[in-house]
Amino acid sequence: MESVGYHILGGIVTIIVAFTVGLTYMGLSRKITARIQNRKGPPFYQNFIDALKLASKESAIHHGFMQHSGPAFLMVSAILSVLVIPVLNNGNWFPNLNFHGDLIFLIYIMVFGSLGMALGSGQTGNPNSAIGVTRGLSQMVGFEIPWVMALVAIMVKYQTTSLVDLLEVQQTGGWLMFSSPFAFIAGVLAMLGMFRYSPFDIVSAPTELASGPVSENGGKYLFTMMSSGSIFAFAKLVLYVDLFLGGASNLIELLAKTFAIYMIPMLYGVVSPRYRTEQAIQYFWGWPLFFGFLALVHALVF
Amino acid sequence: MENIKADLISKIKSTFENVTEKDHDGNRLDFYVNKKIIPSILTHFKVNEGFIHLSHISCVDWLEEGEFEIIYILWSPKDKIKVFVRTRVERENPVMPNIDMIWRQANTYEREMREMFGIEFEGLVGEKEFVLEDWEGMPPMRRDFDTEAYADETFWHRPGREDAMDVREAIIERSREEIPDFAKKYSR
Amino acid sequence: MINDKNSQKIADFIKNWARKHSIWVLAYGTGCGAIEIPPTMTSRYDAERLGVRGAATPRQADVLLITGYLTTKTLKRVIRVYEQMQDPKYVIGFGSCTINGGMYYDSYNTIKVLDKYLPVDVYINGCMPRPEAVLAGFAKLQQLIQEGKATGAQKYKENHEYYRGNLRKIIGNKYEMPLYNW
Amino acid sequence: METILTIFIIFIAGTAATYFLGKLNGVLRSILFLATLAATGWLFFTGITPESGIEFRILGITMGWGITPFSYIFAIIVMGLALLSGIYAVKAMEDEKNLNFFFANFLLTVMSMMGILFSLDLISFFIFWEIMTWSSYFMVVFTGKDVQKVGIKYILFSAIGAYAMLMAIVFIYSFTGSVLIGDFIDNFHLFDTQMQWLIPILLLTGFGVKSALMPLHVWAPGAYSNSPMSYTAMFSGALSKMGIYGMVIVLILIVQQIPNGYWIKEVIAWMGGITAAMATLWAIKQDDAKKMLAYSSIGQLGYIIVGVAIGTPLAMLAGLFMAVMHGIFKSTLFMVVGAVERQTGTSNFTEVTGLIRKMPWTFLAALMSIIALAGIPPLGGFIGKWMLYESLMGSNHYLLIIMIFFSSTAAFLYCFKFLFGFFLGQEEKEWSHVKEAPAMMVIPMLILAGFAFLLGIFPGLILKPINEGMQFLGYVSTTNRFWEMSIIFNDWGNAVVMMPIFYWIIGVFVFFLVFLTIKGYKTTRYVSTKDISTSGEIPKEHENLTFTMGFMQPFLRAVAPVMKRQIDKYYTSIGNGLEALFDFTRRINTGNGQTYALYFVVFIIILLLFKDSLF
Hints:
The complex is a heterotetramer.
Chain A lengths: L1 H35 L9 H10 L4 E3 L2 H20 L18 H21 L3 H32 L4 H11 L2 H4 L1 H15 L10 H4 L9 H26 L6 H20 L6 H8 L2 H15 L1
Helix pairs in contact in A: 1-10, 1-11, 2-10, 3-4, 3-10, 4-5, 5-8, 5-12, 5-13, 6-10, 8-11, 8-13, 10-11
Chain B lengths: L1 H14 L4 E4 L4 E5 L5 H10 L5 E10 L4 E10 L4 E10 L4 E2 L9 H12 L2 E2 L25 H8 L12 H9 L5 H4 L4
Parallel strand pairs in B: 2-5, 6-7
Antiparallel strand pairs in B: 1-2, 3-4, 4-5
Chain C lengths: L4 H17 L1 E4 L10 H5 L10 E4 L7 E4 L5 H13 L5 E5 L1 H5 L21 E3 L6 H17 L4 H7 L1 H12 L11
Helix pairs in contact in C: 1-5
C-alpha cells in the first residue's frame, strides 16, 4: 500500500514539475523568438498568465462528448509518457511506472493523445480542424520513420528496449550521442517534426487553418490542451536527454540538458518558413531517413 | 503610333456605320457607337484588330441627359493601344446587350452594373446579388439616389457631429494661424 | 472561508490580473484599420510585451477589434463572431468610423455608431489611429479590466433585445440570425 | 469424440432445415439458424477438449477427424465469431430476399471451417476447403452486384489455390501412401529435394490465396466489400484465418525440415511486410468504408503472416495473438459498417457524416475496435504489435520492422478517416432521421469490443491456449518467459505490465473528464455543429461543410510514386497476353482442308526426319 501511495505522490510531483518546466520553456521560447526578431518580447512567465486566463474564462462551448473529452485524451497521453520516462537517473525522486520506460510502448502512448485530439476536433464539424488533423497525421507518418529507425538502431545495439537500461549503459559507456551519432542525428531531425514548430507547423497554422485542430476549443478546453502540451513537451525533451545525453542526476543538470535540446527545434524554427505537408514528408524521407539507415548499419557493424 | 491609330480609325469607319472617334494624346482612342452594334464591334476588335483584353467596363450616370454611358476599355498588347468604346443607353429601363460570351470576365462587371445602376443585360447569368446583401429599392450608385438622406433615415448619428463642422475655427483659435485660401473652400 | 468577501476579492484580483496581461486579439480585420495591426504587433511597437497576441478563432479570443468602418453586410458577421466568443470578452472600437461614421458619415451601407450594436469597452480615435494610439487603447483596456469596469459583455447579455433590435432595424428580417442561446 | 460427429450432424441437419423449412417462415428460419449455431457452440465450448479425435477408413484410405491444441485456437475464433455474427446477421439481413439460401450458406461456411480445423487428413481437409470456397463464393455474389468482376476474380484465384493444393495432395499421397497429415509431416524428410521445395510452395500458394498474400490478394477487396456485411464479419475475421492456419502448419512443421528452408520463411515474411505496407496505402485511398476495411484486412493479415513466417516463439505468439485480435476488431468494424449501411443506406464516407449523436453505441464499438486496430494501449491490438516489434528486433529483421512500423503508423490515417467519415464532422439534416441500430446488432458489436478491451488488460487469457497450441507445434512453453496474465516480455527480458498502465489511463482520463465537466458546469453549453467559427458566416441548412473529398490528399501526393502501379494491371496484361496466345493458336484451325493436308504432310516429314532419334 505504501508503495502505491508513494508512486501516486511521485507521479503527481513529476506532473507538476513537467507542467511548470514545460510552460516556462514555452515562455522562454517566445522571449527568445522576440529577441531574435529584435523585439522586447513578453515576460518568460507569460504562458502561465495565458494558462491562468484560459482557466478563468467564464463560459465554454462544446459540440458533443468527443470534443468534451478530447483534452482528457491528450492529458492521458502526456501524463502517461511523462510517467513512463525516467526523469532522473536514480529513480528516487520521481518514481515512474514499474516497467521502466519501454520505448515501443512510449511511441504508441504518444499517439494516443493525437487520436483523442483528432476525434475531439473531428466532432466540432469545423473543416479547418479536420484538415489540420489529416495534415498532422500525415506529417506524423513522415517523422516517425526516421525516429523509429534511430530507436531500433539503439535498441538493437544495446539489446534492450528499456530506457532505464539505456541510462545504465550511458553511465558507464558515455553518451549515446557520441557512441551512436547517426541515430542521434536521425532522432534530432525527427524531433523537428515532433515539436511542430515551423517549418513543420502546418498542422495548426493560424492564418491558414485558423489554428487547425484547436480552432473550436476555448476556455477550459484550451487550458487543458495547453497544459498537456507543456507536459508533453517536457516528456519529449526528457526522453531525448535520457536517450542521447546520458540522462541527468539532478534537477539543474536536467534543466540544462533539456533546455539545450529544446533550443534545436526552436532556433531551427525561428528562421524557417513553413513547409507544405508533402514537402515535410519528403523532407523526413530524405536526409533523416538516410541517417536512419546509417544508424542501423552502424548498430550492426560496430 | 499615330499611323496605327489612323489606320484603325479608317478600318473601323469603313466596317461600321455611325461611328465617331476622338483621338487623345498618348495611346488612347475613343469610339462613340450605338449600343446595337456593341457585340459586333467588340467581336471585331477582339478578332480582327488584336484587342484581346477587356480591361474594364465602366458606367457613368448622365442624370441631366437622362442617359447612362457604358464604356468598354480594351487593350491591344500587340499595338499597345487602349480603345474606349463608348455607348449610351436611356436611364428608364436600361437594357444592354450581354457580352460575356466574348470575354468571360465581363460577367462580373455586368453583374456589378446591374446591381449598382440597375442596368439589365440580356441573358445575363449569375446571382442577382453581387456585393450588396438584401438590397431593395433604388440602386445606390445612381445619382438621383440621395445617399445622405438614406443614411440619415437608416442609421443613427452620434450627436455632436454638427458641432465638429467648425473644427477649423477651433483650431485657429488654438493655434492662431491663418487658414490658407485654398484650404477654405474644403472647410465646411 | 471560500465565500468570504475578502478571498473573493483576492480571487477576482488575480483573475483580473491574468486577463489584463493576456489579451488575445481576434484577427478579424474590418475596414482599413487592419493595416495598423501588423506594425503594432511586430518589432517596432511589439504589443506582445504587454501580453497582446493574435488568436485565430473567436473561441480563443478575448478582444474583438473593430478596425474601422463596418458595412451592414460585415456587421452581421461581426455580431455573429462576437457572440461566438467566450466570456469575458471585450470590444475595442478603432478609428473615427466606429465612433461617428468618420468620412463615411453619409455612406448608404456603413453603420455610424458602433455602440448601438456592440458593447464597446474602449474607443481609440484617429483616422487611422497610429500604433502608439492603439497601444494606449490596450493600456486603457487593461486598466478597465483590472478595475473590473470592462463589463461590456455583461451589458450585452442584459440588453440583448436592445442590441438585437437595433440590428433588426438596419438589416430587417431578411437575414436570419440564429437565436443566441445564452 | 462423439461430440465432433454430433457437431457435424447438427450442422448438416441445421443447414438442411434452415434451407427447406426456412422457405416457409422467416421466424422459424431465424430460430433454426440460431439454434444450430447455439447448439454447436454449446457443444464445442463445453464438450470438446483439445485432445479428442476419431479415425475411420473409407475406400481403404485411413482418415481422421480430431482437434489439436493448435486448431483449437482457430476453432475458438470461428465458433465465437459465428455465434456473434449469426445473431447480428438475423437482424441485419431482415429485409433481404432469398434468406434461406443465405443462412444455409452461412451455416455451411461455419461447418466447413470447423471441418478444416477438425480434419486430420488431407482428403477431408481439401473437401471442407472446397465447401468453404464455394459457400463463400455464393455469399460474394449474393447481392448480385458486380458478379462478373468480383465473383469471377474470387473463384478464379480460389481455383488456382485449390489446384495447387490438390496437386500437392496428390504428390503427397503418391509418395507416402497415406493422407493423414501426421504421416505426411513425419515422412517429409524422406522426400527428394525437388518435392521438398515444390510441395510447400504449392501448399503456400493455396493458403496464400485465402489469407490474401500480396500477389494473390486481388480478389479480396472486391469479395470482402461485395458480400453482405454480416457475412464479411466472419469472412474477414475467421475465414481468412484458415489460410493462416494452414500456413503455420506448412511453415513450422514442414518448411522446418527442408535444408535451407529458412529462405521460404524469409520470402513469405517479406511478402507479408510488403502486403501490409501497400494494402495500408491503398486503404487510405478508399472512399468506401467496405473497400477500406477490405484493404485494411489485407494489411492486417500481412502483419500476421510476418509474425508466423518469422517463427521465433515470440513472433509466433504475436502472429497468433494478432490473428485472434484481428478476428475480433475487424469483425466489429465490418458489423459497424453493416449497421451504418442499414441505417443510412450508404457506406460511403463522402456521403454520411455526423452520426455520433444518432448512433452512440455503434460509435463506441467502432472507437474501441479502431483503437485496437491502431495498436494503441491499453487495448488488445497493442499487445500484438508490441510482441511483433520485439520479436522482429530479437530476430534481426531490421528493415522489416521499419516497413511494419510504416504501415502501422500510416494505418492511423485510415483509422481516423473511418471514425471521422461516419461519425464525426457536421451533423447534416439529411441524416437527422437516422436512429441507432437495433439491439440485436449492437450487442454483438459491443461484446466483441469488450473482448478487445479485456484482452488488452489480460492478454494471458488468449495467450494461454495459444501457448498450448504452440507446444503442440513443438515450441517450448512460453509461459512466464514471454507472457504472464497481464505482463508481456521480449527476448531481452524487458517487460510491459498492462495493469498499472490501465489504472493510470483510466485514472487520469476520469480525473480530467471530471475536471472538464464540473469546471464551469453551468456556463458550458452544447452548440450544434453548424455553430462553428467560419469567419462569422452562418452555414445554411443545405451547406455541407464536412471535409471528406480528397481526405488524405497531401499524404497520397507524397507516396504517389509507389502507388502508380496496381497489381490488377499486371494480371490484366497477363490475361491479355494469354488471350493473344490463344488467338494465335486459333489461327492454326483455318477451316481449309488444304491447310490441314499441309499440316499432315509437314508432320510426316518431321517424323521421317527425326525417326532415328525418336524410335
